[in-house]
Amino acid sequence: MSNEHRSGCPINLTLEVVGDKWSLLIIRDMIFGGRRHFRELLLKSEEGISSNILADRLRTLVEQGIITKADDPSHKQKAVYSLTEQGIELLPILAQMAVWGRKYLPVTQELGIRAQLLEDGGPALWDEFMSELREAHLGIPKDRRSKSGASVAARLQAAYEAVVAKRKKR
Amino acid sequence: MSNEHRSGCPINLTLEVVGDKWSLLIIRDMIFGGRRHFRELLLKSEEGISSNILADRLRTLVEQGIITKADDPSHKQKAVYSLTEQGIELLPILAQMAVWGRKYLPVTQELGIRAQLLEDGGPALWDEFMSELREAHLGIPKDRRSKSGASVAARLQAAYEAVVAKRKKR
DNA sequence: GCAACTGGTTGTACAATGCAATCAGTTGGG
DNA sequence: CCCAACTGATTGCATTGTACAACCAGTTGC
User: Fold this and answer.
1) Which of A56, A79, A156, B21 has the most CB atoms within 10 Å of its CB?
2) How many beta-carbon pairs under 8 angstroms link A with B?
3) pLDDT at A159 over 90
4) Do A98 and A125 meet the contact criterion of CB atoms below 8 Å apart?
5) A125 and A101, same structural domain?
6) Per-residue pLDDT at A85 exceeds 60
7) Residue B12 and residue A108: Cβ atoms within 8 Å?
8) Do residues B72 and B96 share a domain?
9) Residue B45, exposed/middle/buried by CB under 10 A (0-12, 13-18, 19+)?
């Protein structure tokens, strides 16, 4: 890892940080999958990341201030990874990628439904989701102007399970 | 290049297409820099891509339907690269990356000014810019509801040059 | 005819990544 | 107390991606 940058362009600098095939998938699993532990990220991911790559990316993401690492009180060797504000604000990038991917690539129905909800909800929904993430990862109480009872995370999960159930029935 | 995907997740699929350190920079130069030829992309880029990587990425991007390649009438060996609709719609992803990069990374002032304008203008400005790109790359006449006389591309360029001039003066 | 320009390819060296096996410390059940 | 299962990783090796320079053949303008 070099400290020198190829250029001072914001897009280039962003790509230098998250422009690889795994970093954003880890962030995606933390944001949409609620993963906080090494083993969860290792085994419950769709794509099957290998442990050395995961360890390397987690270390790098911590160095870059996108996530933090803390001890889990329940197990001395267990670590809890949390998103920082900087990490939470990657959500709009992920959302735009999801929109684009769903439009042009062979996305499966059950994995595309979240993307559709994110697209339909737009930036307002993203903001609400980011508030929830600030509560879960940073301990910042959520603004009580939330419109619906169910959390965004719960709604996305429910939609996903509904599609899975429907496909199973046929 | 394998035809198999790691998963049907829209974010993963998008990363498989543009999740490397160069593809999005090429798209960026085509969108914001107006580059259409191999030599322009090779020599006028901030980061200094090498010719074999550029050739490989251009070929891949054509295969994936993000850009097209056509003969230039002015020179029998000259090729013109154009964005497809699919390529033009990568703009919101680039814009979000620019916003995030400007907020959290050491962006230089002259290269960050475009990001600031894109952020201030928001999705409405992105749409206007995408209309211009459709006109330039796809030959689709632009809707004549454009508010200002100057094109978005021209406004971004003018802002960049203004910063460069101001910094030079000091 | 020749230099400059066109979009590339080739060769080589090195860095990043992918995969399987393995590791040492921790915990909980018996 | 013992041992299997679980914790976050590390190691070794093969494959892939990247960087850099040299080179190429066809085209154009002078």
Assistant:
1) A156
2) 152
3) yes
4) no
5) yes
6) yes
7) no
8) no
9) buried
Same domain, A77 and A94: no
Residue A1 within any structural domain of the chain: no
Q: Which two three-digit tokens encode residue B100?
A: 């995030």
* Residue B3 falls inside a structural domain: no
The rounded distance, in Å, linking the Cα atoms of B109 and A146 is 37
CA distance B70 to B66: 14
Query: Does the CB of B77 sit below 7 A from strand C?
Result: yes
Point out the domain boundary residue: A61, A83, A105: A83
Residues of chain A with Cβ-Cβ distance to B108 below 8 Å are: 7-9
Query: How far is Cα B3 from Cα B19, in angstroms, rounded to an integer?
Result: 16
Mean pLDDT of B83-111: 96
Distance CA B116, CA B103 (A): 10
So what's the pLDDT on residue B76? 84
- Full-prediction pTM beyond 0.90? yes
Is the model's pLDDT at A170 over the cut of 80? no
Q: Examine residue B69 and state whether it is found in any structural domain, yes or no.
A: yes
Same domain? For B66 and B134 the reply is no
Give the residue with greater pLDDT, B4 vs A8: A8
Contact at CB, B15 and A97, closer than 8 angstroms? yes
- A97·B5 Cβ contact <8 A: no
On whether residue A2 sits in a domain, the answer given is: no
pLDDT in tens, B70-94: 998 888 889 999 999 999 999 999 9
Of B5, B8, B107, the CB nearest to A10: B107
Q: What's the total number of domains in chain B?
A: 2
Are A61 and A100 in a shared domain? no
How many angstroms separate the CA of B51 from the C1' of C12?
15
Shared domain for A132 and A72, answered yes or no, is: no
The boundaries of the domain holding residue B113 are 90-169
Burial class, A112, CB count within 10 angstroms (exposed 0-12 / middle 13-18 / buried 19+)? buried
Contact residues, chain B, for A29 at CB < 8 Å: none
